[in-house]
Amino acid sequence: MTLVQISLATGFALIFLGLYGALSNRNILRMIVSFTIASTGVNLVLVAVGYLPGREAPILDTIPVASAAERITDPVPQALVLTAIVIGLGVTALMLAYAYRLFRARGSLDISDFTELKW
Amino acid sequence: MNSLPNFEWVQVAYALLTLFIVINYGMVMTAVVRKIGARVGGRYGIPVWQNYIDLAKNIALRSKITHGVMFYLGPVFRLTGGVGLLLFVPTIYGSEWHQNFSYAGDLILALYFIFFGTLGMALGAGESGHPHSAIGVSRGLSQVTMAELPLALGVYALSLQYQTLDITEIVAAQQGSIFNWTVFTNPLATVAAMVAFVGTMMRSPFDVVIAPQEIPIGPPTEYHSSYLALMQTNRVLFPVAKTVIYMNLFFGGATSWAEFAIKVFCLYMVSVVIGVVHPRFRVEQSIRFFLKWGLPIGVLAILTV
Amino acid sequence: MVNPLLILAAGLGAAFLLGLLRETSERAAFHTTVGALAVMAFVALSWTVALASGQTDPVEMLTAGAKPPFAINLRTGIAEAALTSVVTLTGLLSAFFMRRDLLRLGRRAMAVLLVLIMALSGLIMTRDLFNMFVFLELIVIATAGLVLLSKDTRALAAGFKYLVVSQVISILLLIGIIFTYHANGSLNIDDISEVPMGANGASLAMFLVLIALILELKPFPANGWALDIYESAHPGFSAIFSAASGSAALFAVYKVLAMAGPDWALLAAGIGIVTFVGANLLALAQTHDRRLLGYSSVGQIGLILLVIGFADRLGDSFLYIAGGLLVSHAIAKAGLFWLSGMVKARDLSDWAALRENPVLVVLFAVFIAMLTGLPPFPAFYAKWSFVHVLATDGAYSLMAVFLIAALIEATVLFRWFGMALKRSSGHSLHISLTGEAIALIAAALAIAVSWVWGNLSGQENLITLVPLLFALLFLPLDILPARIKNVLAIAGLVFWFAVTKNGLDPLRYVFLIIMVLGGAILLLASFHATGRRMGFYTPALLMFAGMGLLVTSETSFQFFAAWEFLTVGSYFLILRGQDSEPHALSYITFSLGGAFALLAGFAIAANGAPTFPIENLSEVPSRIAPYVFVLLAAGFLTKTAVMGLHIWLPGAHAEAETDVSPMVSGILLKAGLFGLFVLLMEMGRQELFGVDLTIVLVWLGALSAFIGAVLSAFQEDAKRLLAYSSISQMGYAVFGLALMNHLGWLLALMFAINHFVYKSMLFLAVGGVKERTHTKLMYKMGGLITLMPFTFVSVLVGIIAMSGVPPLSGFGGRWIFYNAIMSTDLRLPMILIFMAGPVGFLYLFRLIHTIFLGQLKDELRLTKEAPFWILLPQMLFVGFLLSFAILPGMILRRVDSYIGTLFGDTPLVWTGKIVDSQYGTWNPVAIWGVIATVFVVVFILLIWMNHNAQKVKQFNIVFSAERPFKPQTTHFAWNFFAPYRKAMGFLETPVATSFWSGVSNMLHGTADFTRKLYTGNGQTYAVQLLFFVIAVYLIAMGGLS
Fold first, then answer.
1. Which of these, B152, C523, C706, C879, has the minimum number of CB atoms within 10 Å of its CB?
2. pTM over 0.90
């Protein structure tokens, strides 16, 4: 197994683990943590897909621009990962804020306690 | 007078003559029929001029009341219906005198004009406010909805057969031999129509509408004096006028007053004979009767023509 | 032109600027927000105008100084510009609408709002997949933030569920994006679309991207989270969530679908139609207004997704159709959400509070009509075109499903409207001038876009039609007294008649007289109304406008639009009646159902032709002609209330107002008859499966004639009696038409004229009685003849005419009838007609007897004659009936010769005033002469004998030597035809009613059962979402391979 395959497998494992956790835990905080795990998995997949074996990180300060195209990995997935991490952080923060307010409002963190809106 | 191309004043005189003959014929005939009925039952019966006596008595009655305009007009509608029906149908085939005003319309006019008097009198009776009148109307209308159906089917079959709605032409087509009569050329239509005939002659078993023997029920409940006189006149005139239609349509019409008298009497007796041997139907029973017997025969008639 | 990127820059810039403001200066913050939104809206609008008018070309915007795919690029074409306009305008108006709550929460909330609008605009303009993801996540975050604007604490839970689901979606999207990138080496949408994508490994990636975006559209059934937001969020935000977010997400899906290629279109179309059907069905069971709007939003977006799935097929008209639907959805839904902000309580019937402010009621009506796709709004044109495309493609079952779901949607919305107009609310209105102004602006926009769509339609621009404008003129005029408006309305109708009458064939001319001049006569009765009578004239004139346009219509489009106008107008009219809420609903449901049948029929007939002249119906290829015939006939028969499709009629006609009943009965029913005339004239006999369809029509007509009459005889309510009688009379007319011979058609026309006259007269008479006695139940009346003599006369003349007894004009109808059936080979249906005839006497006699004859009730002793204005038209009709009876030729002769040119025969010979047929004679003058003479003679005789009759009092009757107890027990009225009921009562079995209520119950039951799916648990929603994705994937792969 190559490194790419290992990271891909790990990434998907994390995604499924995270999704399973988010969907099987009723506790809101546990759900949020699970989603973080899943996002990590996604990020891992992103990086793995963009990784070219034997190449360096696409930082032009250390690599001459002229030979950059042959020596660096694809920079796009890297950029994507960075953005995704930032956004993931934002969403996680927002979810935590929600969790806080939900707990304040109801004194409970059980997702199945918040079902007044239905049908 | 271009809208009345056939009109001459003398026709009025002819029509009045027809009317006179028919009314008197009806007066006597109905009395005779009652007398026959009495004799059959072992009673002496009324004198044959009894109808004239009743008429005179009613006209002479001094206490006269009215319940209102429609009440007053009811008998007028009723008699107009009878007279009009007679006048819209040729009475004697081939006679210039007794064609009446049949050029105003055809068979359809006659069939629909039958309702004119019924409707008017029902309205008049209604204004009297007597519940029995209203009950009588309710029964009468309910029954007539089905009783007229076989006639309508019979007439439809007949007009398809002769390809005309003109009564004179229908009569003309039946001349020559007795076997040219519709009763022989189209027995089903005739039977269907005769079911309706029996059903609408206000005789047993279909006479619950006026229930003549017992309680004073039926549309005429509140009528008396000259009102009743007009209605009585109609009651002898109207059956004859209606029988004339049947005679014309199914039994070859009449070429003379003698033939007329015999045929009308015989036809009239059909309903009488049936009436004396059958007990009375309730309204829903008679409706079912017509549905069960009149309708299928009528349907057969229009399908086989 | 400024660079469209300014839209994004302005949003972001202002959001940052807000952060620099002090915490306490909310007002300044609000002004900044609104200013930024205004700038964004202005830029978007100016681009829309410029692109639409062709002044500029679509523009590509590059960022970071590099060309794609090395940098993100954005594009502004006409679709992008229009959609950003929708988004930014919604944002601007909603900002005003949420002003108080924004001020309460301060600048942060405003910044979030700005970011949301900016992100939505970005999502629309960007051409880069990953950029799309970024904007989507921004939208998620902003949405979750703005949900908290609501004071409803349940919104918290809704927001969290939304976040949970969004997490799942973003996982799917990211994986999809990265593998798409892996397969194509580019994230640029235009690059990717150049590489053909087969059903290889990349297809899963593409699927994930696509499904993730589609999930943003809240497809049924994976959409519980969205409904919860709609239910609990601030209505101002819900307006954005529905109108703006929906539009942006739709466009994102459109872009990706275009990129993915035609293989995926079916997937979108399938999800679209399932969503449209499912959401509308489930909306049936809703009682919460905002949740209902949520379902409706989901449904509408599903519909547009369906259209997007057809984008390839639609070609040039795609933008027109999808845009029409989208803009209608956006304006109407935003408008409704804004209105809901002014209603305090959340039950549908609480919208009754709107009645405090008539302007809001009008706005409500406008939005509902717009959403339902009624003319002249853009969705009308869009649906018209879309159904035509479906029909041309032969996608008949899809068309049927689409139309049925659209019908359910209309039912749901009109039921709500009916509740608002008829129920009472315990809460008063939350008056807000800003809110009202915003809703008004939305309505103005609605009219503007209607004009645009009308202009682009290639058909008539409906909103510029004079009759429609005339009807709408009465909205501002509604402050005038009713009488002034009435004069104006009558003048308008007479004028329209004078303008349009030239050049019509006699048949259309007669219908024009009935529909337009007849309307003017009936409006005379409306002079009786006092005060302002708000909300009467616009619908009434809308209905008459529809009828006037119907008669003069030349293309199927004009015909259908006119049909919708008259349907909607009459619905609003009928709804005005006191207890008419359920009846108006069933009326509009059946009418729209019929209208959709017409739409389908015309669409199939047109077979791709952009405009389809009505007369081309005769050239429809024989392969499809019978189906066209069935559909059109079904539409028209719904209007004439043929047995089986009749159940809407009795309630609708009986519960309408006094002067409305004659309009909808006497006049409106003729629209269906007119349609049948046109249909049979153009298409003639058609055979389906070896059955001659005109024979089916003959049977249906005969059955209606008979059963209608029987049911009429059993009614206790005078107006219901008349209503059932209309079913019977229309049955005769349909029967006559379907005989397909000269005399049959003349018969139908005679019935059209006669029925108009005597039914209008009788409805007015009964209405006049009701005005005085305050009841419609006949057994509560009695003996009114002396108190209401004129009314009595008109009823008397009316029933004699209707029963067909000579000498009045009804007899002419019967005479023509007999001649007509003599010239046809059909025998058996006649039996039903023969049975119907005498039954007519039953109900007619009952009508006159139980009201005017019999015993007068104590409480009615002071009853006065009906009001003058109600009597006046009746007396005109009496005069007409008498003269028409003597001189039928004055109308019939011209029509007779015209029908002769159609059939090429002359069965009737007119000599002077005598009519001769092959079979018999009808001499009306002679009939009159004989009857009048005999009548007068007998009358004089009676007067001579009984002139001294004594008038007696009421109870002076022969009553077994007793006086009757009281009028109530003596007036024989209730269950008048008891004997008939005993014999024929089985015909009363409500077969049709049971059937239709069974259908209705089944739909409601399904809706109520299925919506339990939405358990309210966020985790369940996420699981449903995943199952949905898997199910769609399996189906899609099955379809692709």
1. C879
2. yes
